[in-house]
Structures are given as structure tokens and as C-alpha cells.
Amino acid sequence: MTDFGFSISKSATIDMDAVDMELYERVCRQVPSARICMSCGSCSASCVAAPYSGMSVRKVILALQRGKDVRTMLSNCMLCGKCSMACPRGVNTRNLILTVCRNL
Amino acid sequence: MIDRIPSGFHPFVIPFLLGMAFVLGYCAFGLFRIIKQLSWKERRKLAVSLITPETVVKNIRDIFCDCLFHVKLWKRNKLLGYMHSSIAFGWFMLIVLGHLEVILFVPKRINLFYYPIFFNYFVAEDEITLRGSLLFFLMDFFLLVVLSGIVLAMIKRVSSRLFGMRRTARPSFLNLVGLYALWAIFPLRLLAESFTAHISGGSFLTIPANWVFRQFLGNELNMLPTWWAYSIALGVFMCVLPFTRYMHIPAEMLLIPMRNAGLKMVDARKGFTRVQVLSCPNCGVCVDACPMSANRANLKDCTVYLTRQVRRGNERRIEQISDKCLMCGKCKEVCQVGVDGAQLRLMQRARRQYGFSPDFSNLPQSQIISSSSQKNEKVLYFGGCMTQLTPAIGKSVESILRKSGVDYEWMDREGGICCGRPLYTAGRTREAEQLVQKNQEIIKNSGAKVLLVSCPICYKMFLEHYDLNDIRVVHYVPFMLDFIASGKIQLIQSEVSYVFHDPCELGRGCGMYDEPRQLLKRVAQIREAEKNREMSVCCGGSLGSLSLDFAQREKITRASLDNLCGSGADAIATACPLCKTTFSRYSDRPVRDLAEIVDELIIDN
Amino acid sequence: MKQNVVIIGGGIAGMEAANQLQLLGYNPIIVEQESALGGHVAQWHKLFPDMSVARDVVGRMSKSIASTNVFLDTRVVSVKSSRSHYTLSLSNGVDVTTRVVLIATGFGLFDARKKEEYGYGVYDRVITNGDLEQWMNGCADSRIPESPRSLGFVHCVGSRDLKAGNNQCSKVCCMTAVKQAIEMKELFPDSELYCFYMDLRLFGKKYEDFYINAQRDFGVHFVRGRVSEVGEDIDGRLCVKAEDTLLGKPLKIHLDLLVLMAGMVCHPQTSKVAEMLRLDVGNDGFFKSRDNLANIQESNQDGVFYAGACTGAKTIPETLAEARAVALRIHSYFNNL
Q1: Are C125 and C17 part of one and the same domain?
Q2: Which chain A residue is nearest to residue C116, measuring alpha carbons?
Q3: Contact between B183 and B154 (Cβ < 8 Å)
């Protein structure tokens, strides 16, 4: 390919028209409480893995809704259950994580 | 006693023979398959145990106690115990005595398989002897015993509440066929033997019955049909046996030697697991015991339904049941056969396919800098993840350690690596193993001699899955008892009364029931809940359950609290951060960890 | 003869309603379980949005009802209801017969010990919004350090929290936190202040001005993330963990003082009062109004009315407006008898 001396950066816009919500919907069917997250951040704040892999159940739920990849975040989850204890809405975070891992 | 039928055969024995042949063939094939599924190591273990005199004796004793006398059931419920043992032992004795009769009176027929069963049809009584009368008496006696058991079983079928069971498992269609066939066998036997009693002789049951029947029924006419019916009932029962809960009868006889040989469940379906599944007698004791059944919820998610679904191969339900369980271990505790429901589910969870698995190789390895060893042995305190959210527990443990002058270090004060138990109970055993390796290294490098744990979830994991060389793993309860015994701490007695909740992982999980009570007695008044120790009811917060949602857990917690509050204690004591948090949400009285209670009552020097 | 109206609760709702009822020609009787009138407001220091002194507000109100019958340190022990009358037996031995009972029992402050992860009652440097108001009113509090360098305010403690048993927003905590942060910054100009919020719900008149002031003039740091756990250093400083949800990164900070914005929950006596008068209680624990739009002050019982925070979290202006409205409602009730 000819090098023109410049490159075009990809758009960082989340194109909601093109987002594939299939995985999110499938996860929600199995873990209905995934829908009631209010993004307070309690889960990530208490997360043991968050400092290492950026794990955050809040972000996982959001990323699924925006069609972003969640593998890196999940890679250090120890399933310890602190997030499910800390969640003020009673989201079943552990089952959510397991379900996402099964469907990836 | 002489042979009445010269050929020693009558076509009515054919249904029985067919049934018997089928069930024996099925069991032999099943046994062969199960043995084949065992690993070479397991097979050797089993073989060795079968030739070791101690285990042989133990096997025989266990088979008699568990299968025939139902000793464990007697201890739990006398009526149920009688019902089961009367049928099992009575039937067993009928078979034994039948053989004895053949050996004594018609020894040449001993090679005929059906003779002991249908003895009374094939013989005629030529003279009355004492020996014969005694045997006939015993036969009638044990038939009566069995019949009494059958009557109880019928009553139980109509009203299980009379037997102290609130809920039982609903039988499937084939189970009902087997059940009715079983019920029919013994009344039919009574009829058959009664109709023949004037020829073959009988005793206190059959002779009067024979006399009564003769008054208005032609005995000769009814004799053969009843023997046919008896044989058909036996045949039907044996033909459906492999597909009903009655499979537990042969399965348990295999389960006992396998368990005594030290076999463990290693596969979700095969080998020893298969034997456990088949051994479930579907009695339904686990339905009432299961904490999830509070408020009549999740009734079909207890172990009896799991074994049923495994036998049916209903994968969707197996997964549902396995994911929902709190893994509290109570069903195993109440199970007469010892089916390990939690382990069954664990194996099932481990079977699940994952498209993505965590990898912990990037986690930092050594966070603890081994401090120079002082003259005291160094204690490493591991609070665990949950303790981060219940700071009162960690703070109290630390305070007690300080007050007793122990040289300690808090391994995960700023947060650490999970012990691995949550991953392990979720069935992700390989991933849990990675965490074990990480923690193991940190602990070994710390130079500590004692690993002190306050969370029973971690404690169980450290005990069962960690290899820490000579580092002693202790739960703080016995550790504090030592402090008290050696006078390192002195305590005031408080007037507050506590009821102690046995956390699942500490009680049923690690068998620690007495120590927490000893500790509590040292500082406060102690009350007992109705269901305590082995029968303790899970708080509902367990990490064991994957799919139970928050609202369902609330019902479980409230039911468990009702059990505790029934004791009338002022406050609830426990020794688990998860139990504490869970109870605190709904409790009308304070919920405290033993460490907090003790720390508050130490006399400051 | 003047008609009796028994008012259960002598907080601002009860006092304001008593004042209005008196003006309308009734004989209000206040039954208050504490030894002073004013309820929660009497414990507080300054009230937003005008920074009025709470004591003055309560003082003015109690002066206006100086001639009203008030039973302090008194509870309702039992209620007998006939077709048109209620007879209330009080703990001081008095029996009162009335056609109308006004419930103005108010709310309870969430017991912050229930959120053990925040360390209230465990750590020395954790207090609640109520504690801080009392300290500002001059009550000594050893938990508040001489010169704190950094202070944190945790919003939504026991509000919007299913696990704490209260799903609802308590309405006033966001504003209270901003107000208290400004007050603390004025007291300790060298300190840094952090507000940990889930959503800033600054809905009332002039509330947004406080927010802007706090940002611009007082440099209060707003962190969007709910605090999940609080640890303690060996030297007693608090280590607070939250997530900066806007950046999506876990965050930790060392603080000298943490103030928990304990929310409004139902008054602990609610179920008892409800039982005596056979009133409906909602699943949030508060009294259940006939509806939540046009009949907030109506109960399911004839002649029993509500005013103020006994039916849910309310601000002071809302409570006072309700108290005045209920007086008129009672007036029309009597006229229609």
C-alpha cells in the first residue's frame, strides 16, 4: 500500500444504530437483575480485581449495552462476591459474570 | 414336608423368573459399566478394601444397619424408621427363611431359584413337626411385620404430616407403578399362602385365614389365581425397579463398599457419582430440610429432584437445580443414604462450558515482606474479602491479637487475593487453583507459623485445598480459646444472652460446633435455637448459590432468623462475615460476630 | 365548645398544623414523645436554602402555639374508636376524645451502623449528618478532629438502597451534604472536601446555586461514585474506597473525617401507631396515603389525617405547606360532618 504520510483515525463514536444488543439481551434473560444497575460504582469500588484488570460489573453491563468488549475486565475476576454484597440494588453480579463468560 | 408337584415347576413362576432375570441382568450390566467408569486407582482402592477384613466387616455392618435396619432413620423419626425397616428387614427375613425351608425340607430343590419364594405352593405338609411349626410361625410373623410396614406406607402416602414430614417428593408415574406393585406383593402373598395353607401348612396368620376363606370361597379355585397374581406383582415390581426409586436397594449395597473404600465423586455423572444418584431413595427428607424451601419456594430444587433429573437426563433442569443451591450441605446431613447433594452440584457446575476464563498470572505475587522473626511465633491474619465489608470483625480480631500480645501481621488489610473458595464452589476449580497457588506463595514467604482466619469460607478452603507445609491454619475461635486457657486474656461475663448461629461452612463444612459455644459461654449467656448445630438453617446469603436472586434470599434469611429468634435470646452471635451481613439486614435484634463480643469483654491490663 | 384535634408528633409539621388549626378556631392537642418540641429540626444548626438558624425557626413556631395544649414526654398507649370519635389513652394517664387525629410523627434517621462497611460505630472518625449538625450546635464530639485536612461526605447512606431496606431517595441529603461541606470549608479553610454521590439531586429553589458556590467558591470536589468500603490506618486515618464512575477507575483516598448522609426512613413508632389506628403502611414503611398525588394527607380511616414526613421523605417547605393544607382539610372535614 502507498504510504501517504498520514492516517485516518477511526471514529470513537459509539454508533448505537449498529450496536449488537444480542449478548446483552441474552444475559438479561438469564440474569434479569442485570437491567436494574444504576451505575453507582459500588461493585467496582469494592472489587478485588479492579486494580489489576479494570474489572467493574457496572462497566461490564454498560459495555454489553454499547457493544464493547468485556474480556479484559473479566480476566481477573475472582468471583469473590464482594460486588454482590455491596450492590445497593441487589444485582446478582456473580451470576451475571458467569453468564457473560459462558456466552462469550 | 414333601414335594407336591413332581416336576417342581408351574407356569405361574414365569413372571417372577422373567422379572428376576431382568433385574439381575440389568444390575450386573450396570455394575460392570460403573466399575468400568472408575479410574484404575479407584478400582484398586475398591478391590483392596474388599479384601481388607476391617472394611469387609464395616461393609457388612453398614449394609445391615443402613439398608435393613435403617438405624439413621430410627434416630431421626421412629415411625419412619419402623416403616422402612419393617419392610426391608421383614422381606429380607422372608427370603432367608424361605431358603432355610428349602434347605431343611426339600434340599434337592435348592438349585431352583424360585423355590424359596413360592415354597408353600410346591410342598404339602405330611406331618406336623416342631421345627416346621417354628419356621411357619416365623414366616407368618415376618409377613405380618412387612404388612404392618406396608399399612404405614399407605397411611404416609395419604398424610405425610402424621410422620412429621411437611413435604415429600412427588413420585413420578413409574415410581407409582413400582409403589403399587410393592404394596400388592405382600397382601397377595398372604392370600396365596392362606389359600394353600390347608395343604402346605401355615401358622397364626395363614391357617385362620384359610379357614375363613373356606367358609365362603372355594380355596382350590382361588389358589392358582392368587399365586399367579403374587408372581406377577413380583415380576412387575422387578421389571420397573431399575427405572424407579427402588433402584436404591441394589445401588446402596454398592454405595456402602465404595464409600468405605474411600472413593470420592470426581465426575458429574459417572462412576461413584452414578451410584450416589441411584442410591437416592426419593424419601424427600431433603425437601423439608432445604433452606430454600422456606415459604414453599424452590420446592423442586432440592437434592431428591436433582437425582431424579440426573436419572432422566434433563440437562436444563439439572443446570437450574445445580446453580440455585446454597451449598449449605444440610441435605447431606439429613440424608439416610448419605447422598452428597452439594458435591453432586459442584461436579455439575464444573462441567459447564465457558467461552471465557479468567487468568490470574498478572496478579502481584509477594505482598508480605517477611519481618525479622522475633521470639514469638508470627501469626498471619487473613481476613478475607467479606471481612473488608464488615470492618467490625477485622478490627476486633486485630484488637484481640494486640491485647494478647501476639506478633501478627494482617495479610489483606489493604485487600488481597481471594482464597478461591467462591470460584471453587462455582465449579471453576482450575481457576480457583491459580488463586490457591498465588496465596500459598505469599503465605509461605511471610515467615509466619500460624495462619489465622476469621471467615469460615476461607477457613474451609485453606484446610482442604492449600498445601502450607508446617504452617498451622486456625480459625480464630479455637485460637481465642487458647488465649483464655493460657491466661493471655481475661474476660468479664456479660448478662446479654446470645443464640449462636452455626455458619454452614464452619459447622457442616468444618465440623466446628462446640468451640464457638465454649467461647460464647465464657463471656455471655447462651441460648440454643430449635434447629442448631448440624441442623442449622443457612442464612440465605451463601455464595454457594449462583442464581438465587435477592428477593428469594430474603425469604430464606427471614426463615432462618425466625428459627434463631425463637430461642428468645437478646442478640444473635455468629462467626462468619457473610452470615452477619445477611442477618443484619432483617434482624430485629443485634447480630454480632464472636470476635466483637469477646473483644468488648476483655479486661484491659 | 372548641373541637379537639389530637396531633401525634410535635415536630415542625405538628406545630405548624396546630398553629393553623388554632387560628381556624379548633383546640389542637399535641402529643410529643420527646421532652421538647421541634423534632429533628430542633437538633439542627442552619437550614438551607437561606441558612436560617434552626433554633430560631423552631422557637418562632413554638411561640406561635404557646397557648396550645402540649403533652411532652407522652405517648399514645391505646386508641378506642367509636363510630364518630377516637378516644386516645396517653401514657400520662390522660384520656382524650376527639373526632380528628392528625398524624405528624415524621421520619426516623437511618441507623448508619446498619451499613457496617462505612464503619459508623466501628471507626473513630466516622459521623453522620445528624452528628455534625449537633456538633455545629455546640455539642462536643470527640470524633471530629481539631483541624481535619480532608473530609468526605457520603451521599445516600440508607437511601436508594435495597439492602438497607430503603429504596427511596431521601431528597434532602444531597443538598445537606453541599450545605455541610460549605460550612465545614468555612470552619476549616485549609481542608479539602469530597462529596461522594450517585446522582446529585438538587431540585429545589436555590439548590443549584449552592452547588455552584460549593464548586466555585469553596472548591468542594465532587466524585461520582458510591463509597463501598472504609478502612482504617494504624494512625486512625480513614481509607475510603469508591469508583470514579465518570472516569471508570477505582479510587481511594485518605480522610480525617467521614460524614455519612443518613437518609430518612420511617419513624420507628410507625407500625405501632398504624396498628392502634388501623392505618395502612406502605412497603417503604411510611404511612400510606390514599393516593400520592391529590390526597397525600388522607388516610384509609375516617377522621385520621397525615402531615409531613410521616408519609415519606420531605423537605421543610414541603412539610410546612402540608401542615397548613391539612389544617384546611380538617376544617372542611368538620364543616361537612
Answers
A1: no
A2: A86
A3: yes
Same domain, C131 and C11: no
Check CB contact under 8 Å for A87 and C163.
yes
Which residue from B minimizes the CA distance to A88? B550
SS3 category, C284: coil
Chain C interface includes A71 (CB < 8 A) = no
The Cα–Cα gap between B332 and A77 comes to: 31
Measured in angstroms, the CA of B397 and the nearest CA of chain C are apart by: 13
CB atoms within 10 A of CB B550: 17
Provide the domain limits for residue C290.
4-106+267-335
Asked if residue C25 and residue C127 are part of one domain, the reply reads no
Residues C97 and C183 in one domain: no
pLDDT in tens, chain A (104 residues): 677 777 788 888 888 888 889 999 999 999 999 999 999 999 999 999 998 898 999 999 999 999 888 999 999 999 999 999 999 999 999 999 999 999 98
Tell me the residues of C at the B interface, defined by beta carbons under 8 Å apart.
Answer: 114, 116-117, 119, 121-123, 162-165, 228-232, 239
pTM for the structure as a whole: 0.90
**Res. C175: pLDDT tops 60:** yes
Report CB contact under 8 Å: C117, B389: yes
The answer to whether the CB atoms of A81 and B428 lie below 8 A apart is no
Domain co-membership, C139 together with C255? yes
Report d(CA B196, CA B122) in Å as an integer: 10
CA B290 to chain centre: 12
Nearest CA in chain A to B359: A75
Q: Considering its fold, how many domains does chain C have in total?
A: 2
C245/A58 CB distance under 8 A: yes
For the record, the C-alpha cell of C103 comes out as: 398524624
ipTM: 0.91
Q: Write out pLDDT tens, residues B508-532.
A: 999 999 999 999 999 999 999 999 9
Residues composing chain B: 605
CATH of the domain at C245: 3.50.50.60
Distance from CA of C136 to the nearest CA of A (A): 30
In chain B, residues with a C-beta closer than 8 Å to the C-beta of C231 are 388, 391, 413-414
pLDDT tens digits for range B221-249: 788 889 999 999 999 999 999 999 899 99
Copy the grid coordinates of residue B39.
Answer: 479410574
Do residues C275 and C252 share a domain? no
* CB-based contact B389 A82, cutoff 8 Å: yes
Q: Cβ contact (<8 Å) for A82 and B386?
A: yes
Q: C162–A88: do the CB atoms touch at under 8 Å?
A: yes
From the CA of A15, how many Å to the nearest CA of chain C? Answer: 20
CB B273 within 8 A of CB B259: no
Please indicate whether, in this complex, the C-beta atoms of A90 and C162 are within 8 angstroms of each other.
yes
Which of C231, C264, C297 marks a domain boundary?
C264
**How far is it, in rounded angstroms, from Cα B272 to Cα B265?**
6
- Give yes or no for A47 touching C (CB within 8 A): yes
Q: Which residue of A has its CA nearest to C157?
A: A88
User: Is B413 in CB contact (< 8 Å) with chain C?
Assistant: yes
H or E segment at B453?
A: strand B450-453
Is B388 close to A46, i.e. CB distance below 8 A?
Answer: yes
Q: What is the pLDDT of residues C158-173, one digit of tens each?
A: 999 999 989 999 999 9
Q: Does residue C316 share a domain with residue C240?
A: no
Other Cβ atoms within 10 Å of B49 Cβ, number = 20
Task: Pull the grid cell for residue B554.
Answer: 430474603
**Looking at the DSSP assignment, which residues form a beta bridge with residue C108?**
C265
Q: Say whether both C330 and C230 belong to one domain.
A: no
> Half-sphere exposure (CA, 13 Å, Cβ side) for B521?
8
CA–CA distance from B341 to each of A94, B265, B279, B540, C95 (Å)?
A: 21, 11, 12, 17, 62
Give the chain C residue whose CA is nearest to the CA of B387.
Answer: C117
